[in-house]
Amino acid sequence: MTTDTTTKDAAPGATAPGETVLDARGVTMRFGGLTAVNNVDLTVNSGEIVGLIGPNGAGKTTFFNCLTGLYIPTEGEVRYKGQVLPPKSFKVTAAGVARTFQNIRLFANMTVLENVLVGRHTRTKEGLWSALLRGPGFHRAERASRERAMELLAFVGLDAKAEHLARNLPYGEQRKLEIARALASEPGLLLLDEPTAGMNPQETRATEELVFAIRDKGIAVLVIEHDMRFIFNLCDRVAVLVQGEKLVEGDSATVQGDERVVAAYLGEPFEDAPGSEEIAEVEAAEAQAAATDSAPGKENDR
């Protein structure tokens, strides 16, 4: 499938054609003596949609967390437009990298519009005193943020539901809202973690078109997904993670024709592959790290 790749309506965070947006080198993540991601290299260039696939437990989401400051890699570095990303998630967002999550993370009791406005906070220049005094500058900034938020809701097809509570949206529209909120930070790179999980074929097709539209605005995209048809229709390149290591990377035909990829998805063991108990230990360590990261008080440390 091909689409128009011009960027005449480029987003504010859009990147110049041919620019390397993401450059991850030797990224390794260990939990104690367990290695969840091992020496992974990956680049994403402007104008590209890159897919990241692999069996369950391959380390895909852990790798995403290393890219976005939720985890600090044990080894390696992550650069965005040539600059090493800081090890804080809010600073990564401010730098120009936004993401969605495998499990939708919306503010359920806030409106659709308010959720997108939350995503605008990294691009709002007004400080504490301006907010307290509510002077002309504050009102101009607030008006501009609302206008931009409504533009993004129109872009994803949710402008008519701006005043609805997020929790009342159907599942597929909640996914769209999470993408709109990510786009509100004006990223140059958008990371999508299983954006079509739980969707029916019509919703999946709509998501595919939305991702193409995001790319056409000059925003590079890196996406994790288990739906192989979606990935191979969508992506310019696909990288395969198996047991925390990058097995192969290339276009759809290259990846689909690689016997090692087929074997990995069929569950055939590799030399020195960890057993089920070791894999379970890695998954338990990741869950513990996630629980610690979301504990009360941790949000203020980021």
From TrEMBL:
Biased composition (Acidic residues): 273-284
GO cellular component: plasma membrane
Organism: Streptomyces fructofermentans
Transport keyword on record: yes
GO biological process, one term: L-alanine transport
Designated name of the protein: ABC transporter ATP-binding protein
Keyword check for Transport: yes
Highest taxon of the lineage: Bacteria
InterPro entries from the UniProt entry: AAA+_ATPase (IPR003593), ABC_AA/LPS_Transport (IPR051120), ABC_transporter-like_ATP-bd (IPR003439), BCA_ABC_TP_C (IPR032823), P-loop_NTPase (IPR027417)
SMART domains: AAA
GO MF annotation list: ATP binding; ATP hydrolysis activity; L-isoleucine transmembrane transporter activity; L-phenylalanine transmembrane transporter activity; L-valine transmembrane transporter activity
SUPFAM superfamilies, A to Z: P-loop containing nucleoside triphosphate hydrolases
